[in-house]
């Protein structure tokens, strides 16, 4: 009899394990404007991340039905990019959900855990610019931590009430609890890190070292309690910010590097990519490593957000070797291929001229003296400046106008020393014909003086500014004199034509 009981127990346990691993069809359906673009997070990857989205397909009536196969509770993000609206749905396997959005943008849900899903929409999510974050500011660190725990407890109490009333399942509640653990761990880490950086930026006393050490220990304890490589915490939509940004990019440097006023502004510089990559490999494994590297490559490896770093290429090569069939690849592979092409070698182009010996040129007057007898259209830019690079798409139309009027294009980059390779790669990739100069510190100071002199005389826009912003365009005459310190942008074709119409 005892053998039968043991066998029955084993069979029951095996049955439970198999059922928990079995994917169940879960559907999300509804009706939207048939012309609206709607995106949803891919459930075939382990994390709910705003960049890993697929396009929802509707019929000619705007009706859609997402058929998702999942084996565990998770979050699905629905994004309406045209309106900027985003909804995060906690869902369970095997259930059907009908969703709608009312005229005020409120999500209406029919299906399992309905009240819980709708309640979740009211919870705090990551947005440090949101007024809600003011509740975390001010007071001592201890009182701030108490505020965080109080808010977290109050949120969970609302879900416990729904659980007690039978309106949500235990599995649903556990998913919410894990998400709130991750979210408020992120909030806490963010605020501690902000304290740490304030000390670094404004050192004042000998106690600063002690204060920084204390913050480091508090962060260490936080990450030990809510482990960034925990598979459950990975489900939270806040995981990427918590694990990738706070744990890898920030905390690991606080722990292993000497961070002070001299280098605090370089904390998030792409120069740290090899360090971050080494820490990711040391601290993550398996599915967690795959997910972390996917987020890392998306955020640090592609030219669409002007973050193309050559240092990201070895990370990508490691990823495709280690995870050749990864479902994450489709979200950043095209970006990395562009980055590889970006640095694959510059084709000779006689029309692109890099000015040599730039370190010895410290003023705009010195630079333009090389072109005496020629009018010059100056473009002051930097590789990290998105508006600057957005104007490059007008380079052909601009080039034609300048050539017709015997004007030389001169591009002045503000990129720091050490960024020469990226600077040159951008020039050749975009085919920026003309002369190119990378400014040093004295040269930038001279540009600032020129801007201030013109600003004070009322000849430029932006009265009240203490320094220039980029992109900045100037027109210089044949004798090296600035005749327009606020020239039109390349995209303002008609305005540029007017410069030479008289």
Describe it.
This protein is of the alpha/beta class. The protein has four domains: 21-120, Immunoglobulin-like (Sandwich); 128-260, no CATH class; 269-344, no CATH class; 352-499, Glutaredoxin, CATH 3.40.30. Helix content is 44%, strand content 15%. The protein has 16 helices and 14 strands. The strands form three sheets. It has a six-stranded mixed beta sheet with strand order 9-12-11-10-13-14, with helices on one face. Strands 4-1-7-8 form a four-stranded mixed beta sheet. A four-stranded antiparallel beta sheet has the order 3-2-5-6. Helix 14 links the parallel strand 11 (407-413) and strand 12. Helix 4 (170-201) packs antiparallel against helix 5 (208-225), helix 7 (273-283) packs antiparallel against helix 8 and helix 8 (286-300) runs antiparallel to helix 9. The chain is globular, with a radius of gyration of 28 Å. The chain starts with a helix and ends with a helix. 31% of the residues are buried. The model is unreliable at 458-464 (pLDDT under 50).
């Amino acid at each position: 009899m005892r053998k039968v009981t043991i066998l029955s127990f084993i069979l029951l346990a095996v049955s439970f394990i198999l059922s928990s691993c079995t994917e169940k069809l879960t559907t999300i359906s509804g009706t939207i404007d048939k012309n609206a673009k709607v995106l949803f997070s891919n459930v075939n990857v382990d994390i709910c991340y705003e960049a890993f989205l697929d396009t929802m397909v509707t019929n000619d009536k705007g009706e859609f039905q997402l058929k998702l196969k999942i084996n565990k509770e998770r979050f699905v993000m629905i994004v309406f990019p045209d309106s900027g609206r985003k909804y995060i749905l906690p869902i369970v396997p095997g259930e059907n959900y009908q969703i709608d959005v009312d005229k005020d943008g409120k999500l209406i849900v029919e299906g399992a855990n309905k009240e819980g899903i709708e309640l979740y929409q009211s919870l705090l999510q990551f947005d440090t610019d949101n007024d809600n974050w003011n509740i975390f500011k001010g007071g001592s660190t201890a009182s701030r931590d108490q505020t965080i725990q109080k808010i977290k407890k109050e949120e969970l109490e609302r879900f416990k009430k729904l659980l007690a009333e039978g309106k949500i399942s235990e599995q649903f509640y556990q998913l919410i609890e894990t998400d709130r653990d991750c979210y408020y761990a992120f909030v806490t880490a963010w605020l501690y890190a902000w304290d740490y950086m304030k000390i670094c930026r404004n050192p004042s006393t000998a106690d600063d070292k002690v204060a920084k050490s204390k913050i480091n220990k508090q962060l260490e304890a936080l990450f030990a309690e809510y482990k960034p490589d925990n598979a459950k915490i990975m489900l939270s939509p806040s995981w990427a910010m918590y694990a990738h940004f706070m744990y890898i990019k920030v905390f690991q440097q606080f722990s292993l590097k000497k961070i002070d006023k001299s280098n605090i502004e370089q904390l998030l510089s792409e120069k740290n990519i090899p360090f971050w990559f080494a820490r990711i490999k040391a601290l993550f494994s398996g599915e967690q490593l795959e997910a972390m590297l996917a987020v890392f490559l998306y955020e640090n490896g592609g030219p669409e957000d002007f973050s193309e770093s050559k240092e990201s290429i070895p990370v990508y090569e490691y990823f495709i070797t280690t995870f050749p069939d990864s479902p994450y690849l489709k979200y950043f592979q095209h970006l990395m291929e562009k980055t590889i092409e970006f640095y694959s070698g510059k084709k000779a182009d006689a029309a692109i001229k890099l000015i040599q010996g730039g370190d010895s040129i410290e003023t705009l007057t010195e630079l333009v003296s090389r072109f005496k007898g020629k009018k010059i259209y100056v473009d002051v830019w930097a590789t990290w400046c998105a508006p600057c690079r957005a104007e490059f798409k007008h380079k052909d139309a601009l080039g034609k106008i300048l050539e017709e009027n015997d004007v030389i294009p001169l591009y002045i980059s503000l990129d720091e020393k050490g960024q020469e390779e990226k600077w040159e790669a951008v020039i050749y990739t975009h085919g920026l014909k003309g002369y190119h100069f990378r400014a040093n510190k004295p040269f930038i100071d001279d540009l600032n003086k020129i801007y201030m002199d013109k600003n004070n005389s009322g000849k430029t826009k932006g009265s009240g500014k203490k320094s220039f912003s980029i992109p900045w365009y100037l027109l210089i005459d044949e004798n090296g004199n600035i005749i327009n310190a606020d020239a039109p942008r390349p995209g303002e074709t008609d305005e540029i034509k007017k410069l030479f119409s008289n």
